[in-house]
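// run 5 | inverse folding | seed 20
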């Protein structure tokens, strides 16, 4: 987003800077809409009414709570990470880093080194080791002031060693930009009276007091540019998923959710794809997936003053946006083993040239007979190379082809991490296919070192489970640092 020098010019601040107070801090507010659990099975009659109800949506203001209620959705809030990430089938392994990862030794002669089984990923690589997790955890657990000074190239605080941001350098850069709108930890306002000296050597009466401010904020949260939030979340997720052979990519095709013949635009900031091992394919931008998605939303208010908590129209819209992104990912993952059929593909009107007549002849043919083919100019040869003449606007207009599809030609769509024995693409649920269950963790504050580490732990666990290798089984006792004996 910014070059290194430009970023420093934008983000650098002077310590103990005295200035006028910024706008009041934006209060934190989170959506808490609770949909009605109808548990109504889909039939031919109810499905028709269901599609017709969603077809009435023309703009976000048309969304109501009934649209969310009709999805048979059950929302579980403030779930622990252990309730969200499935457990490993082996008692000596785990997808979600636990307390053993903080004390396990890197020395294979130490007894603690054999307490966790070595794991592999579906791309053939070995899963990140516990020492890598501890290293990333330490980079996030530092004090905000130390990290902000490091990315601003300022001297460390007295008595402290310089902090090295490491792999989370971009995260700390963008978090510092966010702090100028959201971080209220150093906010301090006070009154200041300024007097002046007169010609007699005395002082005049002090002027009216003025409000002064010291702190990080220069504005309020609702005014923050959306790119600051997007880049901060991207840097955090990308740094963790990269360890598992994944990369974040913004949508290369407009994200649209299909419902029969209707398409709904969906807000999807980034998709996480599995990278390939061949360098030539990597240069071509070929990826596999999607593995998961990332959605950032700029809204800071979700209900009107007269709306009770949990019933606001903005809350229902926010929940539907989140669910729309999840359903879009499910549709893309369900394309595994299928081929795209573009609109109009195989139809006569996309393959047979025709002209309906009329005065003046066909477009681009002033002789009057539109059935006669326009002769093309010969190709010009320059040395050993042949220059082909590009089609002009008329020829491009007359060319017949199917409509643009919704699939990305550089993505091999795969349901990575899906349980082979499950008919549906989910983590773990005993609900029927026509019901949806959304499990949410608590909201994590990225300005809190403890919450940052918990957020990284959750991303780590979800990615490890989705990228697991389901075809390999490890024998008991094969730990990190040891050779693995594969069983048939």
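// decoded
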């Amino acid at each position: 987003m910014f070059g290194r020098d430009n970023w420093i010019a934008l983000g650098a601040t002077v310590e103990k800077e005295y200035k006028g107070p910024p706008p009041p801090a934006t209060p934190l507010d989170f959506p808490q809409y609770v949909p009605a659990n109808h548990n109504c099975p889909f039939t031919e009659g109810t499905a028709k009414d269901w599609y017709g109800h969603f077809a009435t949506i023309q703009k976000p203001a048309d969304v109501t709570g009934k649209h969310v209620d009709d999805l048979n959705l059950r929302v579980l809030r403030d779930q622990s990470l252990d309730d969200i990430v499935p457990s490993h089938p082996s008692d000596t392994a785990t997808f979600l880093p636990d307390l053993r990862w903080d004390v396990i030794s890197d020395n294979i002669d130490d007894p603690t080194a054999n307490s966790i089984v070595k794991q592999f990923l579906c791309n053939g690589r070995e899963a990140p080791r516990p020492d890598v997790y501890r290293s990333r955890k330490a980079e996030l657990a530092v004090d905000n002031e130390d990290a902000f000074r490091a990315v601003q190239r300022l001297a460390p605080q007295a008595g402290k060693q310089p902090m090295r941001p490491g792999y989370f350098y971009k995260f700390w850069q963008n978090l510092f930009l966010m702090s100028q709108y959201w971080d209220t930890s150093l906010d301090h306002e006070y009154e200041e009276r300024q007097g002046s000296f007169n010609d007699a050597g005395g002082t005049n009466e002090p002027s009216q007091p003025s409000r002064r401010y010291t702190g990080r904020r220069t504005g309020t949260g609702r005014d923050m540019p959306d790119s600051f939030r997007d880049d901060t979340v991207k840097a955090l997720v990308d740094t963790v998923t990269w360890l598992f052979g994944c990369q974040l990519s913004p949508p290369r095709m407009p994200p649209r959710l299909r419902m029969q013949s209707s398409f709904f635009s969906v807000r999807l900031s980034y998709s996480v794809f599995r990278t390939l091992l061949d360098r030539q394919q990597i240069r071509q931008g070929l990826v596999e997936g999607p593995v998961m998605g990332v959605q950032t939303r700029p809204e800071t208010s979700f209900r009107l003053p007269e709306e009770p908590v949990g019933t606001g129209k903005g809350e229902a819209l926010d929940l539907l946006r989140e669910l729309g992104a999840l359903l879009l990912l499910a549709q893309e993952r369900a394309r595994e083993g299928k081929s795209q059929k573009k609109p109009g593909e195989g139809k006569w009107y996309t393959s047979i040239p025709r002209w309906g007549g009329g005065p003046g002849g066909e477009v681009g043919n002033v002789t009057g007979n539109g059935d006669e083919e326009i002769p093309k100019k010969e190709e010009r040869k320059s040395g050993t190379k042949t220059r082909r003449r590009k089609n002009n606007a008329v020829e491009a207009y007359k060319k017949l082809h199917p409509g643009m599809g919704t699939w990305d030609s550089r993505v091999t769509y795969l349901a990575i991490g899906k349980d082979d024995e499950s008919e549906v693409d989910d983590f773990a649920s005993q609900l029927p296919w026509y019901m949806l269950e959304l499990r949410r963790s608590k909201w994590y504050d990225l300005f809190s070192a403890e919450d940052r580490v918990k957020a990284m732990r959750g991303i780590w666990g979800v990615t490890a489970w989705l990228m697991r290798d389901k075809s390999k089984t490890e024998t008991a006792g094969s730990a990190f640092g040891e050779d693995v004996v594969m069983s048939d």
